[in-house]
Design a protein that fits this description.
It is globular and about 55 Å long. The strands form two sheets. A ten-stranded mixed beta sheet has the order 2-1-3-12-11-4-5-10-8-9, with helices on both faces. A two-stranded antiparallel sheet has the order 6-7. Helix 5 (160-175) crosses helix 6 (194-206). The longest helix has 19 residues, at 15-33. It is built from eleven helices and twelve strands. Helix content is 40%, strand content 20%. The chain has two domains: 1-104 and 259-353, Isopropylmalate Dehydrogenase; 115-254, Isopropylmalate Dehydrogenase (3-Layer(aba) Sandwich). The structure holds nicotinamide-adenine-dinucleotide (NAD) and manganese (II) ion (MN). GO terms for molecular function: D-malate dehydrogenase (decarboxylating) (NAD+) activity; magnesium ion binding; NAD binding. Belongs to the isocitrate and isopropylmalate dehydrogenases family.
């Protein structure tokens, strides 16, 4: 029997609700498969925990997380804590501390889900986000606070090693897709240094992948292409900030933020990788039992894939698609189903197929 050790961190808002649903589905899969089991430990780190203890991650917390095969993460962000404090308190220390530099964000219109685009069926993308440096390197400062001469800087940092490894990761992933197409997204007209370096390193790496079709777009221009000609894109590689924005757009174009998954990968597997829905805490629907768990289920499928459970990962995707196709939708997709309804239906499909 294969055992996978999972650290579950639901954290804030709807995070614990969707992680609970995700763990239920993972249990059903393990029972159906019979070849593996999940050993789950839940961590209470959240904004409430921060308000009570003064920190999100206690001393030695990252060392404890290191013992796990994967981290299953909900969402962090609270109305009681400034967003930059919660993000830098919990999610970024894990992603950066474990060098999860490749953030993989697939987007596709699931069966039965309506895209706001007429040609939404053309959406079948993977956005690769550089997840360790760039605009979120944490490099900046403020001087002369409150005075008329106040200055704030937010300096993006790009390193050759950091850029080259994300490009290589993107090329490798694109090679595994049927269309073998990779689009480089930067802003190297207005930004002349780090962005031009991104472009140059991309074309250096491209020499090693002659079978792959490449093209490039500026980040503003690619938004129009995503909306008007979605079928012309396949894999996209972009910086931390740019891909963050593009993937929320991709989620909305594929039907809802409530279905979009993401994997924060440490491809060398020196450290655990982290799997999470891309949405946040969703204060407006917290506690109502109507959060869409599909993003978390799809995320769980990516986690299973990473853990070497390809059969269970595929079974879960089939169950998700059967349930979305059946029209059992939460309110974000125009339906009236609850988180629990969708979870039960996915578990039932897993048991029977
Ligand atoms: P959000 O994703 O929480 O919500 C945006 C909108 O999408 C809301 O109307 C919400 O109800 C809806 N939505 C999101 N997930 C849904 C789901 N599963 N089912 C149905 N509807 C869903 O984004 P926001 O409002 O910008 O941020 C709220 C908080 O979450 C902030 O504190 C923010 O910092 C945090 N946040 C955290 C993460 C993360 O942990 N990775 C990501 C984004 C935002
Ligand atoms: Mn985001």
């Amino acid at each position: 029997m294969r055992t996978h050790k999972i650290a579950a961190i639901g954290a804030d808002g709807i995070g614990p609700e969707v992680i609970r649903a995700g763990l239920t589905v993972l249990e059903a899969l393990a029972a159906r498969d019979g070849g593996f089991r999940m050993e789950v430990e839940s961590f209470p780190w959240s904004s409430d925990y921060y308000l009570a203890h003064g920190h999100y991650i206690p001393e030695g917390g990252l060392e404890r997380l290191k013992q796990f095969d994967a981290i299953f993460f909900g969402a962090v962000g609270s109305q009681q804590v400034p967003d930059h404090v919660s993000l830098w308190g919990l999610r970024l220390p894990i992603a950066q501390g474990f060098d999860q530099y490749a953030n993989v964000r697939p987007a596709r219109v699931l069966p039965g889900v309506k895209s706001p685009l007429q040609n939404g069926a053309g959406i079948d993308w993977v956005i690769i986000r550089e997840n360790s440096e760039g605009e979120y390197a944490g490099n900046g400062g403020r001087a002369h606070r409150g005075l008329p001469i106040e200055v704030g800087t937010e300096v993006a940092v790009f390193t050759r090693a950091g850029v080259e490894r994300i490009h290589r990761f993107a090329f490798e992933l694109a090679m595994k897709r049927p269309r073998r197409q990779l689009t480089l997204v930067t802003k190297s007209n207005a930004q002349r240094f780090g962005m031009v370096m991104w472009d140059e390193i991309f074309y250096e790496v491209a020499k090693d992948y002659p079978a792959l079709k490449t093209d490039r777009e500026l980040v503003d221009a690619v938004t129009t292409r995503m909306v008007l000609k979605p079928q012309t894109l396949d894999v996209i590689v972009a910086t931390n900030l740019h891909a963050d924005i593009l993937s929320d757009l991709a989620a909305a174009l594929s039907g809802s933020l409530g279905i979009a998954p993401t994997a924060n990968l440490n491809p060398e597997r020196q450290f655990p990788s982290m799997f999470e829905p891309i949405h946040g805490s969703a204060f407006d629907i917290t506690g109502k039992g109507i959060a869409n768990p599909v993003a978390t289920f799809w995320t769980a499928s990516m986690m299973l894939e990473h853990l070497g459970e390809a059969d269970a990962a595929a079974r879960l995707m089939r169950a998700i698609e059967a349930v979305t196709a059946s029209g059992l939708h939460t309110p974000d997709l125009g339906g009236t189903a609850t988180t629990e309804d969708v979870t039960r239906a996915v578990c039932e499909h897993i048991r029977q197929h």
